[in-house]
Amino acid sequence: MKKKLTELSLEFDDNQLLARLVGEQNSHLKYLAQQLGVDIHLIGNILSITGSVTKVKKAQEMIQDLYHKLEDGIDIENGTFEGIVRLKKQSSGSESQADIDLQGTKVQLKSSDREIFPRSKQQANFIQAMKDNDMVFGIGPAGTGKTYLAVAMGVSMLMSGEVERLVLTRPAIEAGEKLGFLPGDMKEKVDPYLRPIYDALHDMSHESRIEKLLASGEIEIAPLAFMRGRTLANAFVILDEAQNTSAMQMKMFLTRIGEGSKMVITGDATQIDLHPKEASGLIDAQHRLKNIESIKFIEFDERDVVRHPIIGKIIKAYAQK
User: Fold this and answer.
1) Cα of 320 vs its chain's centroid, Å
2) Which residues are CB-neighbours of 1 under 8 A, at least 6 positions away?
């Protein structure tokens, strides 16, 4: 027996806002229809929604909420649009709870007048954790935005004067490859490992601005070994690819935190490139530090993947035994 379908029409007064709501070539509507299991068609300034009563009502609420956000001046580009839909789908509370997660956990980039919104419930929790805690671990698979959001928060705090420096580091030896076998001087050996951090930085602000901050030392990018013996005060410090640290390296890094600093540690416990007999510092820290106040652990999974949707399916497939 077929489920009874219902149809609902929504009319909008502002054609410019409506065009931004539906997206280029109706991409937003297609995404929403696919996520909620309804059919959505645009005729003039009227949206027609067809599906089960429950799904049509949910689509109506989402579309009206998105339109109101546009009226309030929020720029709903692709990622933000998908983020709002994800948050509303994932939120177990009321509709207003999803709004709080979205609005309260945005990252303002003063250097480029950009606002970065979370695209999943855990991304929202991660951003909030970075605001509220001195030390935060973001643990989960590739594509979940851990490093990107950490860099965004660091740039935001640097530009607003909340910290004096942004320090970004990661282990420089991965997949069994030794720096000594690579051509070039130390910078040329290390830079390929740090490339993802450079890429994230350049996405946050104008390249010339980032280069000036790098030249002045206000932004520092260095391999983890260079952190030994230092105390990092009034800084936002990010350790990326933390699963490839040893327990001793992790202890060394964590004890570098100084007055007025925040530390964010990101990694993927399923992508460890250490020798099989060597324990990952990330997993070790997770066990040792989980009950310490002001240290927060945020765990991501395939539902939080914000790159190509196929990545989430790949991660899920590899997680199955």
Assistant:
1) 25
2) none
Phi, psi of 166 (to 5 degrees): -120, 120
Please answer whether residues 245 and 253 qualify as being in contact, where contact means their C-beta atoms are separated by less than 8 angstroms: yes
The answer to whether 63 and 10 have CB atoms below 8 angstroms apart is yes
How many beta carbons lie within 10 A of that of residue 127, not counting itself?
A: 25
Two tokens, residue 151? 């860099």
Q: What are phi and psi of 40, to 5 degrees?
A: -130, 125
Strand-pairing partners, residue 47, are: 10, 42
Model pTM above 0.90: no
pLDDT digits (tens, 9 = 90+) for 175-232: 444 555 555 555 555 566 667 777 878 887 788 888 898 899 999 988 888 888 888 9
The per-type count for the chain, helices as H runs and strands as E runs, is 12, 11
